[in-house]
Amino acid sequence: MTLAVLPGRMRALVEPLLPDWLAPRWWNSPEELVALAPQAEIGWFDLHDKPPVLAAVAGATELRWLNTAYAGVNWLPLADLERRGVALTCGRGLTATAVAEFAVMTMLAVAKGYPAVVRAQDRGEWLEHAPGTRELAGSRALILGQGAIGRAIDRMLQGFEVETAAVRRGDGVGWKARLAEFDWIVLALPGTSETRGLIGATELAAMKREAVLVNFARADIVDQAALADALREKRIAAAVLDVTDPEPLPPGHPLWSLDNAHITMHLSGIPTPASLQRAAERFARNCERFRKGEPLEARVDLALGY
Fold it and tell me: 28-78, pLDDT tens digit by residue?
């Protein structure tokens, strides 16, 4: 029997799918996770609070495969996992549809000035004129990142007749010279050492005044202080930020006071019933692949970080 230490909150979805050669141990608290981890050959240690997860990974000396439903894994000790020969699978693609729908929703909200409509309703005020008159149709979007989320955003925007240009890993930095051509700059990149600080003061200055920066990737891809300055001085039209540094954004932070900063509080990737079911089914498929020595779905390249 192969021993797996798995999250109790996923038990109802995962247990019916498990093969008979796997012996599950279910954890329901950080303390149970850390206590059970040393037994794990297969682990699923997801918690929003990361220190217990990192302690569990460090203590899981028998670990051969670590699974996570998170798409981003740069918070894990990737070099240590590689040194130990531990395979890592992630949540790549599980929430891509939900994140992409959220991203397109926010772009429409910015284009139509929808936040002003909601605030007018709260005041009981009937608006005589639309607060936003931009149209997605005919606009141009630069999409940085063509993983599952980037591709899904691209596909949906094309349905709104947006002209899209995609930048993939390895495409170089030629896109920087074209920043002024685009109405929307959409970030859907993984968080790595290569992407950290990719959008800074220079890149923001190259965007046209009507441009909207849309970040559904990682906060550290953008120089947040430079972005706040650009928004305050109206050098770009707006930014949609699903990710910020820190999270939660504390009261009184300058971004809260900027009416052209749309903070969506990292809500886009919150698991849905459908994505949780996909996570359970992928884990079950990977159990069989693990048993047979076949390539695992959504395996992370530990050297690249995604």
Answer: 999 999 999 999 999 999 998 999 999 999 999 999 999 999 998 989 999
Sign of CA dihedral 121, 125, 126, 129: negative
| Distance from C-alpha of 171 to C-alpha of 192, rounded to nearest angstrom | 16
The predicted-structure confidence for 224-240, as pLDDT tens digits, reads as follows 999 999 999 999 999 99
Q: Burial code of 75-103, b = ≥16 C-beta within 10 A, e = fewer?
A: ebebeebeeeebbbbbbbbbbbbbbbebb
H or E, element range at 31: helix 30-36
Q: Each residue of 101-151: pLDDT tens digit?
A: 999 999 999 999 999 999 999 999 999 999 999 999 999 999 999 999 999
The boundaries of the domain holding residue 41 are 2-94+271-292
Same-domain check for residues 80 and 107? no
Residues 128 and 255 in one domain: yes
Beta carbons within 8 Å of 96's beta carbon, 6+ residues apart: 147, 148, 149, 151, 152
Contact 153, 214 (CB under 8 A): no
Same domain, residue pair 64 and 193: no
Q: Is residue 305 part of a domain?
A: no
Q: Would you put residue 3 in left (φ > 0), alpha (ψ -120 to 50) or beta?
A: beta
Which CATH number do you get for residue 201? Answer: 3.40.50.720
Predicted TM-score (pTM) of this structure: 0.89
Whether 56 and 165 map to the same domain: the answer is: no
User: Which stretches of 97-220 are assigned E, i.e. beta strand?
Assistant: 140-144, 163-167, 184-187, 212-215
Alpha-carbon distance values, 216 to 25, 56, 104, 193, 199 (Å):
34, 29, 11, 17, 13
Contacts 24+ apart (CB under 8 A), 154-159: 155/100, 156/100, 156/101, 156/104, 157/104, 157/107
The verdict on 133 and 10 lying in the same domain is no
